[in-house]
Amino acid sequence: MELILTEEVEDLGEVGEKVEVSDGYGRNYLLPKGLAVEPTVGNKRRYEKIRKEISQKKEERRERAEERADELNGLELVFYRKAQEEHHLYGSVRKKDIVGSIKEETGIDLPPEAVRLDSPIEELGQFGVEIRLYEDIHANIKVNVEEEESTEEEPEEES
Questions:
Q1: Which domains does the chain have, with CATH numbers?
Q2: Could you tell me which residues are beta bridge partners of residue 77?
Q3: Can you state the percent helix, strand and coil of the chain, rounding each to 5?
Q4: How would you classify the pairing of strands 121-123 and 76-81?
Q5: Got the DSSP string for 45-58?
């Protein structure tokens, strides 16, 4: 059975795309849920137009993401945190901290989900962090976590 998708269906296709599916899948699932329509002349024209609009929007988003990637690649962010003797932090560096710092440094507003970080950074050091901007477009930044200077006066050493 040939149908035109009205919505994106995972592992099947995108809006406006003609797909070939089994009769049962089409009649019992796609058509009743409104995920597809019969490929009539009117539907073909309608969804071809929608498909072009979606394609154009995706291309614009891709171009914006590539510009952002160029701007972000190589960016170095520095965070100051109090640390214990073993270099473990009292306060970790989280996705929200990284996104906030990126906004402050570059003006680019990103959702925390864009930051690829398995768990918060909980020790001093330098870390590579990937930022997912759009589908397969990523930027790599460096996050330096340094020890916050204590407020106590330490004696200066003379050389």
A1: 2-64 (3.40.5.10), 73-147 (3.10.430.100)
A2: 143
A3: 35, 30, 35
A4: unpaired
A5: HHHHHHHHHHHHHH
Sheet holding 125-134, edge to edge: 76-81, 137-147, 125-134, 115-116
Instruction: Pick the closest to residue 147 from 92, 87, 86, 98 (CA basis).
Output: 87
Q: Which of 152, 143, 155, 154 is nearest to 89 (CA)?
A: 143
Q: pLDDT of 81-124, one tens digit each? A: 988 888 888 888 999 999 999 999 999 999 999 999 989 999 99
Write the CA distances from 153 to 97, 118, 148, 156, integer angstroms: 29, 37, 13, 9
**pTM more than 0.85:** no
Which of 7-16, 24-33, 83-92, 102-111 comes out lowest in average pLDDT? 83-92
